[in-house]
Amino acid sequence: MDPRTEINALLKDGAPELFCALSPLGQRLYFPPDVPAQAAEARGKRINGTIGQITDGRGGAVPLPAMAAALSGLSSDDLSRALLYSPLEGMPEVRQRWRAWQRRGVSDEVPSSLPLVTAGLTHSLSILADLFGGEGRTVAIPRPFWGNYRQTFVMRTGAEVRTAPAYVDGRFNPRAIAEALEGVPDGEPAVALLNLPSNPGGYSPAVAERQEVRRCLLAVAERRPLVVICDDAYAGLVFEPDIPRGSLFWELIGAHPNLVPVKVDGGTKEFSFFGGRVGFLTFACEPESGVARALESKMKALVRSTIGSPVAASQVVLLQALRKEGIEAEVEAVRALLEERYRALKGALAGVEPELLAMLPFNSGCFALVEIPEKLGVTSDQVRRHLLEHHDTGLVSLEPRYLRIAHCSVDAAALPELVRRLEQGVRELALTPSPSPASGRGV
Question: Same domain for 413 and 287?
Answer without folding.
Answer: no
